[in-house]
Amino acid sequence: MTFGRRFFLANTMLFSASIALTGRASAAAASDGAGDDMTRFIYAMPKAEMHVHIEGTLEPEMKFRLAQRNGVSLPYSTVEDMRASYNFHDLQSFLKIFYEGKTVLLKEQDFYDLTYAYLTKAASQNVLYAEIFFDPQMHTDRGIPFATVMNGLTRAQADGRRNLKIDSQLVLCFERELTAESAMKTLEAALPYRQHIVGIGLDSDEKNNPPDKFREVFARARKAGFHLTMHCDLNQLDTHEHIRQVLEDIQADRIDHGGNILERPDLVAVAKRRGTAFTVCPVACGWLRENGENINIIRGMLDQGLKVTVASDDPAYMKSNYVAESLVVAQGDGALSKGDLLTLARNSFEAAWISPAQRKIYLGKLEAFRRQWA
């Protein structure tokens, strides 16, 4: 759910030419003690993940395994053929692959396996805490009960805390091309799971689907105690107005992506005044194009004093670039220092929807790491 739904390819750089390693290769290098000092620093640094779609972590191997388990036919004979098909050039070609993935997610155990696999990967990269996005409408619209999705997700979270020492919470995302009535119905279905769902988000196709379309739904969500975040994908139609609506009309706590804000100093000022955090995914959309030059979004947001974090988005569809690999990309593209990387990690904990006590623990671990590497 990335092209158009999570970013627009035009005028961006999808994969940085400076990063030759895939996610698997760079992870292996880090685990083997190989790689340069900066890469080792990134993998070892305590961090939080604020923007990852659980459906976007469905690796080809697991997709194949679940398809076989559930008797779902896929148009590939091998995992290698499936992975080779992950070459996207526009919204339609991406969505064809992405929506194929959801067809193998049918049972509670499927959602458990998917979530536990992500948590295992994240924990291996020293992610201490994650806020995991999920899109229930894509499952309930197929006749899968909301409880089936939630039970699988929450069982995996509990096992992740116990076995992997990684904490996590859920962020429910509405699909914006669906109706506000559908979103409200989904919100009502989520209320019994309030203790597991910390926030409400908005993703999918932005064209003719502005944030204000869901203003009443988000007002209801805020009244119910949920935090709010919304996608403002890169270079979308009316993107500046969408960012303004999120900041001023709905007053969300965070914006997912949101790179075009750098083109509007007035909106930058609003975001800084409100303390709005941005979850930017550099493998998906790390660059703006301005006056013929590439402008790195993360570097630009840091320079503007915005609270920016780095996240992975849909890593299974992006050559398995999870949050550590995404930070490696961000570091190379933006010439980030270790101080910049520590700021990004600190921002992720400060932007997290956690208790002050939990935040203090995480920031303490980050400070201990800083002293160790000083």
Write a brief caption for the model.
Helices cover 49% and strands 15% of the residues. The protein is of the alpha/beta class and 374 residues long. α11 runs parallel beside α12.
Structure, described:
By secondary structure, the protein is of the alpha/beta class. It has one domain (23-373): TIM Barrel. The chain is built from 17 helices and ten strands. The strands form two sheets. The protein has an eight-stranded parallel β-sheet. A two-stranded antiparallel sheet has the order 8-9. The longest helix is centred in the middle third of the chain and has 19 residues, at 146-164. The chain is globular and about 50 Å long. The protein starts with 22 loop residues before the first helix and ends with a helix.
Defining traits:
single chain, 374 residues, alpha/beta, TIM Barrel, eight-stranded parallel β-sheet, two-stranded antiparallel sheet, 17 helices, 10 strands
What is the global morphology?
A: globular
Strand order of the largest sheet: 1-2-3-4-5-6-7-10
Task: State the CATH topology.
Answer: TIM Barrel
Query: What are the segments in which pLDDT stays under 50 over at least 5 consecutive residues?
Result: 1-35
* Overall pLDDT level: 89
**Percentage of residues in strands:** 15-25%
Give the H and E element order.
HHEHHHHEHHEHEHEHEHEHEEHEHHH
Q: By CATH's scheme, which homologous superfamily applies?
A: Metal-dependent hydrolases
Tally of contiguous helical segments: 17
CATH architecture descriptor name: Alpha-Beta Barrel
Q: Estimate the helix proportion, in percent.
A: 40-55%
> How many angstroms does the end-to-end distance come to?
40 Å
Structural class: alpha/beta
E-strand count: 10
Gyration radius, rounded: 19 Å
So what's the CATH class? Alpha Beta
Largest sheet geometry: 8 strands, parallel
